[in-house]
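Students often ask why we bother encoding 3D structure as a string. The short answer is that it lets us treat folding as translation between two languages. Here is a chain of 556 residues written in the first language.
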Amino acid sequence: MIKRRIAELLTTAINEAQSRRALPAMSIPDLGIDHPPQRELGDYASSVAMRIARAARMNPRDIAATIASLIPPSREIARVETAPPGFINLYLDDSWVAEQVETILREGIGYGSGVLPGKRIQVEYVSANPTGPLHAGHGRGAVFGDTLANILAFAGHDVQREYYVNDAGAQVRLFGATLLARYQQALGHDVPLPADGYAGAYMQTLAAEIVEEYGDRFLALPQDEAQQELASIGMEKVLAWIRGDLHDLRIHFDRWFHERELFEDGQLQEALAKLREAGVLDEREGALWFASTALGEDKDNVIIRSNGIPTYFATDIAYHYDKFLRRKFDEVIDVWGADHHGHVSRMKAVVSALGIDPDRLVVALSQLVTLKRGGEVVRLSKRTGDIVTLREVIDEVGADACRFFFIQRSPDSQMDFDLELAKEQSDKNPVYYVQYAHARIASILRLAEERAIDWSAGEVALLRSEAEQNLIRKLITFPEVIETAALNRAPQGLPAYALALAGEFHSFYRVCRVVSDDAALSAARLKLVASVKTVLANALRLMGMTAPDRMVRTDE
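And here it is in the second language, the structure alphabet:
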């Protein structure tokens, strides 16, 4: 990765300056390497001189000049300049840049991978209660978690993807009570729904299916037994809906972890024993409390109620004990809905009390999605008159559009999803814009094949024009994008990169004829567009999207 090579050169220069006493001895901070806002200012710029100016008690412009003068010669760098108030600007060598086309073609689908030392990371996402269908908000968290897992694995980590199935507790009991009422209604009995029951139309659908499959057999059972059996059957049906929706969104899990496992395998007892040893449990009012206030929280939290029933906080404690101390993940990433905001610091306090560095628990909060059709907000389902399900969104715009739009923005930001834009087959639709670049390249390569052009020996040194060089420069930043997205747990950098790369390609295509009468230049440019196709395909694959070889346009 060229950014790392630049870091090596800058570090060598700073060490040399210190050995010559042109700079005082000090630890070297972050080098502040980034891309300048204008290409005229270089391909990369470092702000390290300004970062060490105070400690060195020197003018940052003098520091920059000293470091720049001591950067050793390298094939990658054509020249180094300084700019006020103390930037070090580095310009890549055009010949070296052109050679990177060969590197990309050689590495293929592996280009940009393995940029980080591997850790064992678990990513838990979606984890919606199996008491109803997924909605668009669940889809956003699902795509975020899945794309992040893709990026982390590609970057070099050992990643496990997990769905936590909440199949115990108060919500499940309420689900069973609601389903029993709907079941009885479907059989002609006039019974009310329980207070705060699940009012969605899908409950009537479930009840009708159960009546068709089982008849009236549950009417003869005691109420509690009937509720339990119906809850179990209903949740299996809802889980089948969820699995189907996620499958069609191209989301797959390594493990579906059921909450009941925590009680069957003793994780909760083990976790509570460890918390007792740490002195953070308190028994009062007949209940067991986690002494959160002693760890900086606003209030203590109940773990086991006075009636002996564990709270959802208790199961979360046991679940994270299992993740960190039984399965021994180096890092755990939880993707939660934004309504769990207050739970984050509490869980970090528990993790710390269990003797685990709380920084090893990363929580990403996913905001809800506002669905729009043009300028109109879509609030209700056309099919049922209540919530708009994720299934309806997938059916309307397709998995590719769902995935791209859901990860375009940071999950903690508000999001508008324009259903009409997502379906448009024009450059206004970012999904179409990116995929069309891949399809256009595939068309160019088919043309070359039809004309029997052998471009395998193309001379990439011929790629010297501004459009060609700009395009290659964008290609070689792909490993940086992967590294940044993985380190910051921020997959939204990937769709932004794909859009930028597609834009560079379309700009190149407008001014550079790929297959022309110049056989040598044609061969070189065919290598270039093939390398673009490789990187676009990599990006699309990591986003869980297809890379089509043929597409039509409706705006031409």
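Translate back mentally: The first helix runs from residue 2 to 19. Keep this in mind for the problem set.
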